[in-house]
Amino acid sequence: MKIVSVVGARPQFIKAAPVSKALRKAGHQEILVHTGQHYDYGMSKVFFEELSISEPDVNLGVGSGAHGWQTGQMLIRIEEVLMEEKPDWVLVYGDTNSTLAGAIASVKLQIPLAHVEAGLRSFNREMPEEHNRLLTDHCSDLLFCPTQTAVANLDKEGITHGVNLVGDTMYDAVLLFSEIAREKSTILDDLGLKSKEYLLATVHRPYNTDIPENLENILSAFIEINEPIIFPVHPRTRKILNTFFPSLLTPHSSLKMIPPVGYLDMLMLEQNAKAILTDSGGMQKEAYWFEVTCVTFRDETEWVETVEAGWNVVVGADTGKIVEAVRCLKSDNPRPKLYGDGHAAEKMLEILAD
Hints:
Blueprint: E1 2-7, H1 10-25, E2 29-34, H2 45-50, E3 58-59, H3 67-85, E4 89-93, H4 97-108, E5 113-116, H5 128-139, E6 142-145, H6 148-156, E7 163-165, H7 169-184, H8 187-191, E8 199-201, H9 206-209, H10 212-225, E9 229-232, H11 235-244, E10 255-258, H12 263-272, E11 275-278, H13 281-289, E12 293-296, H14 304-308, E13 312-314, H15 319-327, H16 344-353
Parallel strand pairs: 1-2, 1-4, 2-3, 4-5, 5-6, 6-7, 8-9, 8-11, 9-10, 11-12, 12-13
Helix pairs in contact: 1-7, 1-16, 3-4, 4-5, 7-12, 10-15
């Protein structure tokens, strides 16, 4: 079996790692295509190194740009790869522009398409990611769902054929790499941190970075909270801060801004944090798996199960709500097992090969 896997952003590298390992272990041929959506070392290459997966077979080098331009460039270049490789399947992940470009290229060439992390919905059509995941799901021949909620979302849209509840490959990755992180990462010592004595924050969604007022509100909340906060700053976020709020980049006693960190360092920071403050979908789940409470800078979340279980509070970009949520956090709720058993990749492989 020959598969072309399309990835382009940091979360997709993590989701793809267990699947890539399973494919190659079983002797199948995988052509790994990196669109270049995330392209600097801290957001891209370091992840391939740490996850011990092969360097991409093809790097399209598209880089950043407006949504239409970026998606169009990816589509053109992915189509060229597919015409040359003629795979049995195209595998796409998540909800990025890379996902949509890979899906459209596959469909136009009538190559079977499988979508990992299918069925997620925020029900917020202002999010580019919502359109990407909707269109990809409706293009796909196989839909690999991480939760029963995702299966139900697809059913409501009339998608029932090819739908498979397999669990979440990010959980596979957490189980696979957490122990390695504890052995290899020195990030806590490097930053002088003690377990459960700091908060971990990330901000990268366009909802927060492209609306300067929202980013200002979040940073103001960090300062008002006045507890040690470790803040790995996404390149897009730092660019907005440099442009609109250079004063917020001034060193503050409780807020420590650092460059983006690799996956192993991030796992260590997450599992030892007192709480996680983020707009990342993946970190909401990782917080849950590590039994760390989470505050989410969104008005909604695709990962509703974490909210229903009491481990995630969705607050938007309101300074007061963020501060109140952090001060009222508790971590004594039951934690039902969510998102599979850690063998999602193997289940996907069995279905693809059938």
